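Quick one, C-alpha cells below:
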C-alpha cells in the first residue's frame, strides 16, 4: 500500500519545520508520494524535493492558494505544475503582497482591545517575512499568554466576528484555477469540510469549480471527520472529481495528524496521484 500525503506546510509559510525537515519526516513516516503545499509560496519546493528524491519518494510540486469565495476564505491546492511558470509565479506574488498590509490592520485591531505589538511579535514567528499568516499571530498570542494554545486563539480571536479579524481581498476562484491549470497542474479544493457552507452553497462552489476547470477535491484530510470523508466521497463521485488526500501537517504539536498518517481513500474513487 502506498502512503500518499499531498498537503502539508513548511516554514516557507506557516509550518514549523524547514522544508527539508518536512520531507525527512515524511520519509521517516513511510510516505511514498509527497507534495509540499505552502500557502501562496513555492520557496520551499527545491529543498523539500531534493530530500524527498534522495529518500526515494515521489515528489509533487504543490501550493495552497488563498482565495475569497462567497465572502469566505477558501483554499485551492495546486498540484503537479511547472513551478517556473511565469503567470503562476506572478499570481502567487500578488496574493503574498497583500499579507503585510493585512497583518498591520490585524495588529491595529488587536491594539484597540489592548493587545500591543502584534505585528512585530507575529513577524518574529514568521520565517518568511513575505508570508505573514494568522498562524504567526496565534503563536504570538500564545507566547504572551493571551491564550493557552493556538487552537484557543482561533476560537476567540482573528476569526470572523472576533477581535483581530479583518476582511481581505485574496485571489478569486477563477484566478487560482487559471494559474494552476495554466502551469500544467491540477486544481484541488482543500479540506472542503472546513468551510461554513450549507449543502446548496457547497454545490454552488463545486459546480463553479468544475466549470472553471477544477478537477479534484480533498476527500481524506487531516481536518476531516469520518462523516466529512463520506460526504465528500459522494460529491466526488457525483461531480466526477478525482480524490486527493493530505494531512495538512503544520508541525509537531500543532497539527491534526502527522505526515502520512491518513485514513485510506474510499474504494471507487479515482486518486488524483494516479495520473502523476
Ligand atoms: P491566513 O492564511 O493568514 O488567513 O491563516 C490561515 C492559517 O491559520 C491556516 O492555514 C491555519 O494554519 C491556521 N488556522 C486557521 N484556523 C485555524 C484553527 N481553527 N486552528 C488552528 N489553526 C488554524
Ligand atoms: Mn496554515
Ligand atoms: Mn487550508
Ligand atoms: Mn493547509
Amino acid at each position: 500500500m502506498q502512503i500518499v500525503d499531498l498537503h502539508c506546510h513548511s516554514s516557507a509559510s506557516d509550518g514549523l519545520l524547514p522544508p527539508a525537515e518536512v520531507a525527512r519526516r515524511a520519509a521517516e513516516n513511510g510516505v511514498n508520494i509527497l507534495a509540499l503545499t505552502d500557502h501562496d509560496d513555492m520557496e520551499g519546493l527545491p529543498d523539500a524535493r531534493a530530500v524527498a528524491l534522495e529518500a526515494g519518494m515521489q515528489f509533487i510540486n504543490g501550493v495552497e492558494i488563498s482565495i475569497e469565495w462567497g465572502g469566505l476564505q477558501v483554499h485551492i491546492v495546486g498540484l503537479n505544475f511547472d513551478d517556473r511558470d511565469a503567470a503562476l509565479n506572478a499570481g502567487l506574488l500578488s496574493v503574498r503582497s497583500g499579507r503585510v498590509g493585512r497583518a498591520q490592520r490585524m495588529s491595529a485591531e488587536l491594539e484597540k482591545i489592548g493587545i500591543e505589538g502584534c505585528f512585530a511579535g507575529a513577524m518574529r514567528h514568521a520565517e518568511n517575512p513575505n508570508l505573514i499568516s494568522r498562524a504567526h499571530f496565534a503563536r504570538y498570542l500564545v507566547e504572551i499568554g493571551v491564550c493557552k494554545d493556538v487552537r484557543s486563539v482561533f476560537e476567540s480571536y482573528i476569526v470572523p466576528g472576533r477581535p483581530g479579524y479583518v476582511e481581505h481581498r485574496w485571489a478569486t476562484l477563477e484566478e487560482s484555477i487559471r494559474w494552476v491549470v495554466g502551469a500544467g497542474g491540477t486544481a484541488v479544493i482543500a479540506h472542503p469540510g472546513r468551510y461554513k457552507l450549507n449543502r446548496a452553497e457547497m454545490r454552488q462552489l463545486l459546480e463553479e469549480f468544475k466549470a472553471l476547470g477544477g478537477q479534484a477535491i480533498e476527500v481524506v484530510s487531516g481536518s476531516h471527520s469520518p462523516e466529512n470523508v463520506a460526504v465528500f466521497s459522494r460529491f466526488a463521485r457525483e461531480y466526477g472529481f478525482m480524490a486527493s488526500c493530505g494531512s495538512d501537517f503544520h508541525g509537531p504539536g500543532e497539527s491534526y495528524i502527522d505526515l502520512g498518517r491518513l485514513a485510506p481513500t474510499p474504494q471507487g474513487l479515482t486518486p488524483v496521484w494516479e495520473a502523476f
